[in-house]
Amino acid sequence: MSNKKGFELNRGGIAELLKSDAMQKVLTDKATDIRNRCGDGYEQDIYVGQNRANAMVSAATYRAKRDNVKNNTILKAVR
Questions:
Q1: Residue 1 pLDDT > 60
Q2: Rounded CA separation 18/20 (Å)
Q3: How far apart are CA 57 and CA 35, in angstroms?
Q4: What is residue 72's predicted lDDT score, i.e. its pLDDT?
């Protein structure tokens, strides 16, 4: 049996893909859908980190924060 690898990952290419504008667009669309399911008082943000692009949805107002603590609104909207 041979010890040859079938393929080798191009780590630089994968990192570039995870930070790309296309990936940021996908993440923005998903975060927008989640924020819309949460209702008023929630906001979204996207940023490019060291390894990949990241999107987040958070409660911005007192009412939204209380709603999220009581009902797990963001978690339920992700499902």
A1: no
A2: 6
A3: 6
A4: 96
